[in-house]
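Anyone able to model this chain together with NAP?
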Amino acid sequence: MRRRDFVKTPLIVAGAAMVGKAGLVSGLLGAGMAHATQRAGVPDIALNNGMKIPQLGLGTWTLRENATACVRAAIESGYRLFDTAQMYGNEKQVWEGIKQSGIARKDVFITSKISTNSMRNPPQRDSIDKSIELLGGEYIDLFMIHWPVKDRIQETWVTMEEYVRKGLIKSIGFSNFNPHHIETLLKYAKVKPVLNQIEIHPYHTQEPNVAATRGYGIAVESWSPLAQGKVMSDGAILGIGKKHNKSAAQVTLRWHIQRGLVVIPRSKNPKHIAENIGIFDFELSRDDMAAISGLNRSERVIPGADPDNFSW
Ligand SMILES: NC(=O)c1ccc[n+]([C@@H]2O[C@H](COP(=O)([O-])OP(=O)(O)OC[C@H]3O[C@@H](n4cnc5c(N)ncnc54)[C@H](OP(=O)(O)O)[C@@H]3O)[C@@H](O)[C@H]2O)c1
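re: yes, here you go
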């Protein structure tokens, strides 16, 4: 497919479609209609290849053996999206949680990412095969390039496309891509990238990258959506929470949702896991949204996590 075809692809990033008149999320609950209650009202975002991704999921970075229990708790609370990566070393434990929960494979959406190390050490197929095996042996819903490793992106992307053709990976995307990385990739990509997972939270709102990514018809997902816990003590966010009778975590996650972003908060605490999905019964006002966006200071939570200059 040519680059301009990507650009023309209508992206139904569902921000506008999600919030109904009453401010409650109606969403695009596809086959999961019967799961509506269990999913705690989590809407889907339409991807450019016809797939749908739940708009809220569980992040699993730093979870190890406890990932299994966290995933189980999350499924009980209504989560259906799980984000892991080769670099997290917990794909097996994440899958174990899904398996133990007894939920059908088709009812969960699993995302994983190829590590920078695997990108630098071809054949990348070995590590991709291993991810598929660790994640249940059937398929991965979305597989991403974790970081834009210089001079290794094209070979990795072309390899990932092979897996899409074989049906072993349903969709492919990337993480930590700036617009210039996307522009270059689109010149040779034959399979459309569906999503860019980037750092977004109230202290790093990333409006330009979000707009540019969407301009290519690619959905955007927020990593470290709670600024790794920093938002919890923010006076402005706590103040907005008081008005709505919601916690700082809930207000912040709702801000991501109303921006139309996919969001993947991480927690090892079952109470927080349940709290973080309780965000589909209230709506932030335009002023609330602007006040939270106004906290931006373009501050990264991980030192050195600059997509154009990282050391891992
Ligand atoms: N692609 C990338 O390069 C990249 C980079 C970083 C992260 N990610 C992904 O994004 C996910 C989320 O980011 P993150 O893990 O960096 O951090 P995060 O989700 O922004 O914050 C996690 C922190 O917030 C706390 N927390 C969560 N819910 C809470 C609540 N309701 N009340 C109080 N504290 C709460 C957690 O503590 P408790 O455990 O005690 O609840 C934990 O310390 C990752 O797990 C990973 O899947 C991707």
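The first helix runs from residue 3 to 8.
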